[in-house]
Amino acid sequence: MKYLYGLAILACLVLWSSCRNDFETVPSTGNLEFSRDTVFLDTVFTNIGSSTYNLKVYNRSDEDINIPNVRLAQGEASNYRLNVDGLPGKIFTDIQILAKDSIFIFVETTQDVTNLPPDGDFIYTDQILFESGSSEQKVELVTLIQDAVFLFPADLGNGMFETLNLGTEDDPLLIEGFFLDDTELNFTNEKPYVIYGYAAVAPGKVLNIDPGARIHCHAFSGILVANTGSIRANGLPSTDPDLLENEIIFEGDRLEPLFTDIPGQWGTIWLTDGSTDNLFRHTTIKNSVVGILMEGNDGDETLTLENVQIYNNANVGLLARNGMVYGENVVINNSGQTSLSCSIGGDYTFNHSTFANYWTNSFRSFPSVQLDNGFLAEDGTPFFNDLNATFNNCIIYGNEQRELGFSNDASFGFTFKFNNSVIRFEDPNGDFTDIDEYQFGNTELYSEVVLNADPVFQNTNLNNFNIEIGTSSAEGIGAPGISPANDLNGTIRGSSPMDKPDAGAYETTEFPDGRP
What we know:
This protein has 516 residues and is mainly beta. Helix content is 4%, strand content 45%.
């Protein structure tokens, strides 16, 4: 019995002690300190929530304090949202901070498009107020809200949205998406475009994209081109290397710096079987799952890539299945699997292109460039076509020992040639010495190829694949007369001290600013 009596006394002491801590707090006298006096939330699109930003509030005194009121200046009408010490809301009372301690306040915002002014962008501000009687302290909140052209599938009600059928009536394959109407088939540079679901180009239609256009795709979204449809991304050279005013850019819809180089933020640009005359010129595609997914060809140059950069792909940069592709000044890097996959056959020609892979997010078991002429599916269905691929004055390199891979079924054609190119393929154990495709001394397959010599890229972490003058293995090894005459910077080829073009998409120059 005496033990129970003792436990009861102990419990009362604990409860009294915790109550006494609350009772002995003193009102804040306006001497709070903050980790910042202004919280800048980075640019967001209308109707898209921002990232969450934090503010730390310090009590430097020797006493536990009580803040009677913490609130947004605009109250419940504010477009900011707070979480104060674990409590969500916009107005809070009796917030306590222990002596020599601190609390976190988390801030985020979503802005309604209907509140935007006619010019399309505006600065949205509010304040977090810390009030105690006659004393008031405040922290400013600032964010830039940007308007855009929003494209999305129709809401069918009951949580259902418009879909596209990529299968057949008997065996449907539905994805959330919609066909662009005729008024939407020209993307201009007046406002950014934000796409939810897959924006599809209908059969026989052409989506034209003007120089300087910015296309932002939401998660699991992208662009799809249907049978006999086309996409024409007509970018131009830019004069400002930072603004890239004439470059066409495809990326995700999160504008905060944290998301600048995060792979897998959106789906892909999907060129379905039967699409035709597709063109990307002076275009950057980044942070997708697959940069471009191409299926099938129409017997002509189904896809042309000129001065195209594809970066930060969760899976593959360019995945072509029995495709027909011509590319020049193409750069692809940082892919979870393969930067360039020419699969299930097809016809491919690449001139002065750089296919690299410096993926560091996780283990990578695929090479930068993979060529195959097909495979047998698990159910026994064959997928095979002849393959013909030519690489002129290219670089194939990365942070793995073997950055070139082949899969050849002898029942189908498998023809390839690498000319005047730098290739990384190390075989220290001799595992590939008896495989025909890897006979780098065979001049019918490899002509004037430099093997396993570092091209010395300037900064692979920043997707900068310019090569260093005087130290790069790619310098001066290119064959003359291979188009294009200018590199990705606009530098005239063959203008290096060696008077021969360099391999890859960039030409070395005698000047650090890129002048020829």
